[in-house]
Amino acid sequence: MDVYEKKMPDHCVAPNKCGGDTGYYVGGELGHPAIGEGIVGRTFYYSSATNCKASALNGHILNCGNKDDGNDYIYKWNQPSGCDRVFCAEQDPCSSTVYKKLDQDGRAGRGSSTDKINDNILEHGWYRFPLGEGIMSKSPVLPGHSGVTYPGWYDGEYPLEEDDEKNGQACFTYNGNNCVSPKPVTVRNCKNFYVYHLQQTASNYGYTFEQDVCKLETMKLDQEWRLQYNLDSIAITDSTLKAGWYEVTIGSKQLASDKTMHNMEEAASILAGSRASTLKRLRYCP
Predict the structure, then answer these.
(1) 173 and 153 in contact (C-beta within 8 Å)?
(2) Which helix (H) or strand (E) holds 264?
(3) C-alpha torsion sign, points 183, 106, 145, 156
(4) Mean pLDDT of 22-44
(5) How many CB atoms are closer than 10 A to CB 252?
(6) Burial call 228-237: b when 16+ CB within 10 Å, e when fewer
(7) 182 pLDDT exceeds 90?
(8) Residue 206 in 3-state DSSP?
């Protein structure tokens, strides 16, 4: 077992962990006390599948540690009521045996995957985004740019030092609003990557990862008839193009065929006004 530190978790614990149906953790923003802080009162919570604070139990924590040996916590609480309620011991969230990977293509915040993502069945816990830039999307993600109906992005700071944590929130884009139904998020610096403590979302909401669109493999628009001054009337429609990112690979300084060059010269003449009133160009969709 990868025991990170001999203490209880400071973050929401999913049901059916720690050997019981519901596991207690130290709740609230204050967390564990520092060395020399004395006995402090804290609230211990256990979570349901949808609520990280399903029930509360009051208690106390004392840090008996010192500068040389580090933290050493002891706890005092009342006996919990109900069956299968247990107190949990923390494990290292940077360990691959603790965090889970969110590696579905549909989570790409600026990708083109149509794989549907729904985090209403996600367990509370630590997660890593191994694809893209390796982090959660860092700005609002528009609906239709991922496989998530209401995509989530991280609003907050990142820890700069290894093993440090920062708290922020996951915002979700919905109906023109960039931050609806926010969920608390904790980010831990694991030296070479980040892990995120995430919670279950409402239906059709999901977390996305940051992606550098310029590094994606794009689809090509390379047909010569697309040249701006091509005057050929071609029965073409782009209504059947696959959704995604495209690169225009024709035009600019690229040479065109003799026929297209003739049309371009003719168009230049038209723009000069020589035949602007007589030319009609037809475009239609079959």
Answers:
(1) yes
(2) helix 258-271
(3) positive
(4) 92
(5) 7
(6) eebeeeeeee
(7) yes
(8) strand
